[in-house]
Structure formats: structure tokens, C-alpha cells
Amino acid sequence: MKNKIQFYLITLIYAIALFIMGYCFDRSDFLVHLGLYAVCFGICLIIYRFADQWKVSLKLGLTIAFLLRIILLVSEPVLSDDFYRFVFDGQLIRNGINPYLYLPQDSISFLSIEGNPYWSTLLQGMNSEGYYSVYPPFHQLFFYIAALGGEDLLANIVILRLLILVFEGLVFYLLYSLLGLLGIQLSNLWLYAFNPLIILELTGNLHFEGIVLSGLLASIYFYHQKLAKSTGISWAWAVGVKLSPMMMLPIWLMAWKRKHLYRFLVYSSVFIFFSLIPLGFENGYLNFWKSFRLYQSSFEFNASIYYILRWVSGFWLDYNPIQTLGPILNLLAFSLILWLVFLRKIQKTTELVETMVGVFLVYLLFQTTVHPWYLIPAFGLSLLTKDKVFLAWSGAVFLSYAAYRNELVEEDAFLLLIQYGIVFGMIIWSFLKRFTVNKIQ
């Protein structure tokens, strides 16, 4: 009982910290948020280390983890304003307007809602009013469901949270199952359940990377069972929510034998095709692609290799270097991913997962924009390996929120150096550790 009291005490501290972050401070109060985040991350590591010693059962641990998420149920997202666009797109669909055909301001004119405070709040709050929607149709389905709550922003937010929580439950189940199947310590589950990045970015800020993770974990689970049909549908599910998991296709091509590969490709292709059909209405895909390319060639945030190359190239690229460096980095990342995949044989599920994590690492290091929630699918998958790079990055990435201390988003070079110093330090340490082990063997 004494051990349980220690567990209850530190989770109570965690709950108080979450409540303060979710309800009491704006994201401009970076130092407050950073301190509270550090407390929560430290508690997560303590639970990971001592959960077995404290005899924390699976039922108790997951119950507390869900209760921590429920704390944020009726809070308005503090660290990200993406939710305004989520709700806005959902309301457009509810009103029969295609979000891929019109810019937000233009679509308002079809609704005859001049001066409506609800719609004004959505329009003024979003950070992408100059772009057509860049969220795939399957992603938009969740926005539409949230919009069924009517013109009530809190109701829309709560519905989105409940949907995300459903998939959090699925992630818990899949992680627990896969950890057991792969013979990995079950305590890794606590690194996900109590990680503040997961709680704040999914339940708190309403991002959908957790749903992407559920699809990827399900695909790994079914691959382990040699069920090509279910694997294909699960992977396509992840692609339908966010297109980025499409980069895993070379891995699947290497992982399946011919008979299973055909079945995998057929079912995944059919699912992806039907999920993307709405983009074909009135050539909406053209606007979708235009905004996607504009985003890729305009936004810079929390990058690593790109910022280094931008600094070096500043001696001869004196104007908008992202338009030159962005495509080059994408080509380099694609080439490295192919090299990484075709370099090794994938015969075991553990090798499949390790390759996926490696692909995510290459992808994120070469991106021009790396928001904290982008790490979540890679972090979740990394828990099925011995690699701790993404665990360390999930703690350090919060430093990127320093950019929002002022109205003008301005990144702190020193904090970027600290964050990526930790990340690259862990990469080097992991490589040396693996090299040493292989040499001994």
C-alpha cells in the first residue's frame, strides 16, 4: 500500500501540472509551460522505472492514464490553434460546401452568416485562412462528426477529444499486445501512457497523429499474424488520415513474399483510392495539391538539417532558400529511405518495426517543418524497439514552443541547438551502442 501511495502522489502532481497547463496559462507563458512539462516528463520516467516495484497493475495504470487525459476534456487547446481549421472544415462539410474548392473567406459568402460570432471566431482563430484545406478526406470525416455538435465550439472540441480518446484506447491495446508478442518489456507501455507530449498534443491540442499511430500499430500486429488483407487495410487507414505513412510502401514491398504482397497491395490500394475519391469532385485535388506544395515551400519551423544548410547556403542563396533547399532535402530523404529499406532484409516483425522507425527518423530530420506532434507515430513505434532516440526527442521537442513567446513567431537558436544536440547525441550513442554489441557478438 505504501508503494501505491507513492504512485498516487506523483500522478496527483502530474494531474495538477496538466490542469495548470490546460486552463491557466497561454502559450506565450513558455517558461511556465516548460517547467510543468519537465515535471510531467520526469514523472513519466519515474513511473516507467518504478511501476513494477510499486506493483502498478495494467488496469490501474491505464485507468490513471485515461483520467489524466480527461482532465483536459473541456479545455480549449492552448499550445496549438489548428483546431479552428478542423472545426471550420467540418462545418463547411455539414453545410454542403467542399473545403477543397474554396478559401475560408470565400466559403463564408455561401453561408450568409455575416457577423455570426461563432464563424467569426473560427475564421479569426485559424492560422491557414489563405490556404485551401490540406487535410485528406478521411481526416475530414472526423471534422464532420465534430461539427454535428452544432455551432458550439466547446461541443465541437469535446466531440473531437472523445474520438481521439477512443483511438488512444486502441493504441494502448495494440501496444500492450505487440510488446507481449515481440517479447519486449511491458513497462514501455507507460512511456506512452504517461508521456506529456502524447497527452498534450493528442487529447490537449486535438492532433490526429494518434489515429495514424493506431493504423500503423494495427498493420504491424496483423503483419505479425501474416494477415496481408488486414495489414493492407490498417496501413491504408493511417495513409487516409495523414499521407506521410505512404513513405512506408518500400518497406512493405520488401517485407512481404509475392503471394501476400499482391493481396496487401490490392486491399490497401482499394481503401486508399476510395478514401481519396472526394478530392476528385470538381478537381478539388488541384487546390489540395497547390496548398500542400505551398505549405512545403513556405513554412519553416523547428528544423535541423534544413537550418544548417540554409545557413551555409546563405552565402549564395540570398532569397527564399526553402524553394531551392526544400525539394533537394526531399529528394535526399527519399534516396536515404530507399537505401535504408533495401539495405536490410526484413524477415522478422522486429526488423520491420526498426526499419519503420529509421524511415521516420530520416524523414523528420530532413523536413523543413517539425511540429512536436509530428514525432508521435515514430515515438509510438520506437517503443517496440530498444531505441530511445524518440523518447529523448519527445522530452526535448517542447523547447520548440519557445517560438510562441511573442506575437511574432521567433525561434530561439540556442534552444534549437539544445534540442538537436540531445537528438543527435542520442543517435550517435545508439549507433555506437549497436556497433559495440554487434562487434562483441
UniProtKB/TrEMBL annotation:
Recorded superkingdom: Bacteria
Transmembrane segments: 7-24, 30-48, 60-79, 141-163, 170-194, 235-255, 261-281, 325-343, 355-376, 413-432
Assigned keywords, A-Z: Membrane, Transmembrane, Transmembrane helix
Key word DNA-binding present: no
Coiled coil spans: none
Keyword Transmembrane included in the entry's annotation: yes
Pfam families, per the entry: MptA_B_family (PF26314)
Name of protein: Carotene biosynthesis protein
Organism annotation: Belliella marina
